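Lab notebook, bench 4. The sequencing result for the construct came back, and we need a structural model before the next group meeting so we can plan mutations. Quick request posted to the team channel:

Model the 3D structure of this chain.
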Amino acid sequence: MRKKEGKRISKKYSVRPGKKSYPRSRIKYKKIKPGLDSALGKVFANIGVPEKQPFKPDPFQLEAIEMIQTGDCLVTAPTGSGKTWIAQKAIAKIHAKGGHAWYTTPLKALSNAKFVEFCKIFGKDQVGILTGDRKENPDAPIIVGTTEILRNQLYDAMYQAKTLATDFVVLDEAHFLGDKQRGVVWEEIMIYLAPRIPLLMLSATIGNADQIANWLFTIRGNACKVVKETKRPVPLFPLFFHPTGTLMPLLNHQKKDGKGKLYKKVADYLSSKPPLQFKTTRRLPPFDKIMGVLIKYNLLPVIFFLKSRADCDNALELCVENPISNSERKEMRSRYIEEFIKENPRLAKHRQLWLLEHLAIGAHHSGQLPSWKLLLEALMSKGLLDAVFATSTVAAGVNFPARTVAFLNSDRFNGVDFCPLNSTEFHQMTGRAGRRGMDQIGFGLAMPDKFMDLRLIVKLIQSRPSNVLSQIKITFSMTLNLLLSHEPDQIKNLLDQSFATYILKSQKVKIKAGQKTKSLQNSNPGYLWKSFIKHLDFLKKTGFTDDQGQLTTDGFWASKLRIDHPLIIAQALRQSLLPENDPALLAAIIASFVNEKEPSDPGLESFADKMVQGALLKITRGLNKFNKLLAARGFEIKTFYLRPSIAIYHWASGTSWEKAISYADSAEGDLVMLIYRTVDNLRHMKALSNTFPLIAQNSALAIELIQRDPAI
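Done. Here's the predicted structure in token form:
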């Protein structure tokens, strides 16, 4: 594992993971000259666009359609193989009978895309969308939405002693069950969903699909059929880009079991002391020369996966000498961009727009505006871009294919440290290589870099997807919402149905049988129940429940705050610490509640800044006793930072976007995300009109103030 950027290694040395370091004076460089290893002749002869053929469902698609008629179904198939088609056909069957269906995705952008797609198929009047930001046609027979919204509807249904008003549920990107931050939502849905409602789960990357299916059978009583497809719709061929510019196979001829070793010339390259390297600029390889090689051998479009946003942006500037793509494509690209900018005028001033339009290259990462990322995704899907420089976030769940994906690192930043790629992450990235109907073959291109471990890449190519593990955890929001509809002993039975508990029981059986097994972290027997009791005891101590565990009046309205820090905001409401007559200031304070990054302290330049600081000081001092109690019971303490509050206050007060960015001292995408999350919290507070009418009214006004272009 390597440390954060800037603390990795001395500037005097260049490193290969696990290998000896060499002084830079000994590193050899050569000019890049396009070349092709003789072993690639037959492979590259297959490059091209396949003949158009009428659509014919694959056997696994037909099998899944049949299986979902009699029970639950978990489909695992490579990216681009047609999993959404299964959902469409299954929903169509339900719809034809007058039934209702729910289709969930983990991302608002994906939900928006599916909404548009389903409207074309079923008609606008038959489809609604619920993402928090959007609420359109909510009573439609077909609803597309984010997973959290569906979970919240299940909470409401349990409180009302009803089952969810739908006849079919699709969980797209089902491997999110193993996501550390959000996986608990997927698991809750699987536990709470009534057995009468068939469940279709779609994923490209689940190694233990049978285990998940067996668990679902134990808690739902419905047979859960696993439908597996391992064949990619477009074959993947792994390449190595030698620093001289010669392309060669990464692996030798594969054996019947699909496994192979490093191609001899690649192994020879690794054994050289020191190995030849790219001559870098700004710590980046010469992308203009690299693009020249890819152009020569017809390997575009390409997605370069880079380690940071800054690298993605800087890489663009290294491609300014690239040949301009043909005039017909440029004209089509320009027309599309022009039409898109009419709906998103702010993009007309985007500093990378000229590069996008004239050189067909772009940077895609979380620091960009959502509208900019949508533009890139649309252009790439239409075949109008040559290269996109992206962080690994683009790999998960976005329809963003290319002929080639290129790797410069065998690790990724997980938010804390740089860790080696796992098989799931790697397969998600390579899943973008090869466009169905547009490519006969896709390529995964490994490039030499000081943080590239080629032997790890070989292992990842030949590995199966990682197992998905339970990430269920008890939160105050979960505790409050379960207490809405369940007695504590009933909640214990629910927690006993968790995937974590199922795995533990399975492990005990294996241990008794003399088999070795790896224990789950924080999953000792009764861990979830003990954690629940810990949360319940705190709710009793602070008056959100009575001594019997029944919700008090405060506990009831606090349960409606289905947000990250419901209890802190609930306590602030109880103590009247939040602004009741200033919606801009209310938005500013809530922004500090949702902010998760530690920004630099700003200088207080105006009376408004000092006013925001005073409001935050009031919150901090007012919650001091409550926070001490949280800390004493072992719970997380929320730290409030001034800069995000100042940025949101000025934005809510009508300042320009550019000015708001300067106050935030962050990337545009980060400020948009801060606004999105602030709006989400305000929306939940808006629902408390019966208990806190002034706060609810000002929450609604605050949403209107901050939810404006480009944060819409």
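The domain at 59-228 is CATH 3.40.50.300 (Rossmann fold).
Will bring this to the meeting.
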